[in-house]
Each structure stands twice: as C-alpha cells, then as structure tokens.
Design goal:
single chain; 400 residues; alpha+beta; six-stranded mixed sheet; 13 strands
C-alpha cells in the first residue's frame, strides 16, 4: 500500500478539550488512514487500541529510522540531537537506565510527602489571598515545576526562563521557526551550563547522577547528557501542569462524577487513571517507521513507511471500553495509553500519577465547593501548542 491522498492531520484545530468525531469514524471504517501532518512526509494514522499498542510496542517499528527521514510531525522543531526519543533499544535502554531509578514507584512514594507539603503551601496561599484565584498560576504550574526542579537540581528562580523555552519546544504555531530555534539553543546552552556547574560542585540530585554517568562511567555522550536534562525538565512539568486544570475542568463538567469523588477520596487513584484516558491532552504522536511489512487493521504498512498513533482515539475504542465517551471514575477496564506504551512509555508516569493524585485529594478536601469563578467564556486556553490546556482558570470555593 502506498500513502496516497493523505488527509490533513490533526483533524481539528480547536484549543479546547475536544475529541474530533472523525476519529470514531476512522476506527470503524478506515483504521489505517493516510495523513499529512503540518511538517514532514505523509504517514499512516492508526486509531484502534490494539493497533496503537502494536505500533508503540512492537520492535518491528523504529524511532531511530526517523533521524534519516523527514519525519511527520506537528511541530517545526525536530528536537535536540541525542534526545532519548530518537533511539531504539538497546541504545534507548542504555539512556533510560541512567535516570530510571529517579522515577521508580518507590522513589516517587518518597517524594509524595514533599509534594504534599508543596501542594498544601500553595493552597494556603490561595486561601489567604482569597477567592477568586487562578488555578494555573497559583497551583498547576508551581507544583510540578517545584518538584522537578528539586528532583533534577535546577534553580527554581529560573522557572520563568525555562517555561518560555519549554513553550517554544512544544509550539506548533505559537512561535515562529526562528524563535523556536533560538529558544531551543538557549535551553540547551542553559542545561550545558548547569552541567558545568555540577562538575565543579557535585550534588546528589538527578543532574549530578547524570553527570557522573557521563564522566565516571561513560554511559552517555555529552549531547545525550544535555538532551536528557532538557527532556526531563520539560516533560517533567509540562504535561502535569496542563493536566491539573484539565482534570478540574473535566470534573466540573461532570457534576455526578465530581460528587462521587468528593464523597469518597479513596477513589482518587482510580479517578486519575480514568481522567488520563478521558482527557485529550494532545494527538499526533511521534512517528514510528516500519522495519518490515507489518499487517494492521485495514491493511499492510510497508517497510520504510511512517506510522502515527492516535492515542486519543485508542482511549475511546468501544471494543475495549464500555461507553468510552462517558467519564466513569469507577472504571476497571483495560489500561489506557495516556502515558504511551512500549519502550517509550512515559518515564515520569509514576511521578505524574502521584502529583495528580495529590492535586485532586488536596483541592477537593481543602477547597469545599470548588467551582469556576465566572463562566466558560472567562477561561483562557493555550493556543498553537501540541499540548492542550488552560493558561488561566479562575476558581472560587466556599468559605470554611
């Protein structure tokens, strides 16, 4: 099969939490669909749950091959050289092992106490200042930013700078190509400067561990070291910072489920999983290239052809989930692919889960009657970014 007559993808340009109905149509009638993303060559799009897991987890699909191709992507920038996302096992495994211990379930549980203290401090400030409060500026951004800065060893006072750089790296249309290149270079130089500092003054943080792995064990190159630091910094806060207001916004739009959660906060871990399945954070993931002919639903992907997965669509697959369009915080069905799948499954998934669990429990227990201040028209959504979310969300609550 050749990739002829590709359709423009992503299918919708709305910045709000909206699932394009066309994805459901494709799952039913054209599960292997030719698409063209804003940048790069045409690709196949897969929309069914099992096909998505195959493309993400089967070694017959390669990430490394993308380095030699004009890979299909939603963003102008291709990423930093040495980025862990560029590699297949065993090179990918080598790099992942350098930082994996920082994100184990045990280590994340140790961080829970500190995360709870940060969350309580932020809520204390909101309560002291009084309603309305901006959930994004007052809580959603500072919580994961503080956690990742302390874990990695990045000065918290630099957060305004690296937030701008992070936004640029994730930009689809918000920044010009020239701005993206400049900010990517600035972020790389910033991380390289922190590496130099850590060599002068070693510390027991994740950046220190990475520098030791480079200098003492030769487990990664200098480019890989800098790119890893950038990846952990950006990915370690951006998606969680976006999902916090996304989750709250979604719960407020489903009052029966919100009431269920308020009545039983022990449901919080399960609620986080269902919200990860339900909330469409972004779509048009990183391309994989077939290393040989592979049969998927709807046809055969030929060797050398790129494939894009719609994780959003997979998480709404009616053959896997009962009433997939419904938010059900007691759902017990198959695991979602909100954190990906396979070798490139999100390294920080356990950290994100913990932060989101702390967030929901803290906000619902300490801000009774939590609700929007104003109307939906007062919400300010991100624009021109590969990650959906709010940049401003005014909330209010009942006085204790």
């Amino acid at each position: 099969m050749t990739i002829d007559n590709p359709h423009p993808f992503p299918f919708n340009v709305t910045d709000e939490l909206y699932v394009e109905p066309r994805l459901e149509q494709l799952r039913e009638s054209e599960p292997l669909c030719p698409v063209r993303l804003p940048h790069g060559e045409p690709a196949w799009l897969v929309t069914r749950y099992e096909d998505v897991k195959t493309v993400l987890g089967d070694p017959r699909f390669s990430r490394a091959l993308a380095r030699t191709r004009d890979e299909p992507r939603t963003r102008y920038h291709r990423g930093l050289p040495g980025n862990i996302l560029e590699f297949d096992p065993p090179e990918h495994t080598r790099l992942r092992r350098v930082v994996a211990k920082a994100f184990t379930a045990r280590r994340v549980q140790e961080l829970r106490v500190r995360t709870q203290a940060i969350a309580d401090g932020l809520v204390d400030t909101m309560i002291a200042q009084g309603a309305p409060a901006d959930l994004v500026a007052g809580f959603a951004l500072p919580l994961p930013v503080t956690v990742i800065c302390e874990l990695l060893g990045v000065p918290l006072e630099d957060r305004t700078r690296f937030r701008l750089w992070s936004d640029a790296l994730l930009s689809t249309t918000r920044f010009t190509p020239e701005e993206v290149e400049r900010y990517a270079d600035e972020l790389s130089a910033y991380m390289a400067g922190l590496v130099v500092e850590r060599r002068k003054e070693p510390k027991d943080d994740l950046l220190g561990v990475m520098v030791a792995a480079r200098d003492e064990e030769d487990r990664l190159s200098e480019d890989e070291l800098v790119a890893m630091g950038v990846s952990v910094l950006v990915a370690g806060h951006e998606t969680t910072a976006s999902q916090i207001p996304n989750f709250v916004h979604t719960l407020l739009g489903h009052p029966e489920e919100l009431a269920r959660l308020r009545a039983d906060l022990d449901l919080v871990p399960q609620a986080v999983e269902e919200l990860m399945r339900f909330v469409p954070l972004g779509d048009g993931g990183i391309a994989r290239y077939a290393l040989e002919d592979v049969e998927l639903s709807g046809g055969v992907v030929r060797a050398g052809q790129p494939v894009i997965t719609s994780n959003v669509s997979a998480n709404r697959d009616g053959t896997v989930y009962t009433c997939p369009e419904a938010l059900d915080l007691t759902r017990q069905e198959a695991s979602h692919v909100g954190f990906g799948h396979g070798p490139h499954h999100c390294l920080g998934a356990q950290l994100a889960r913990m932060e989101l669990q702390v967030t929901l429990r803290t906000l619902l227990s300490r801000l009774p009657g939590l609700r929007l201040a104003g109307t939906a028209q007062d919400l300010v959504w991100k624009t021109g970014s590969g990650v959906k979310g709010l940049t401003k969300m005014l909330i209010t609550w009942d006085e204790a």
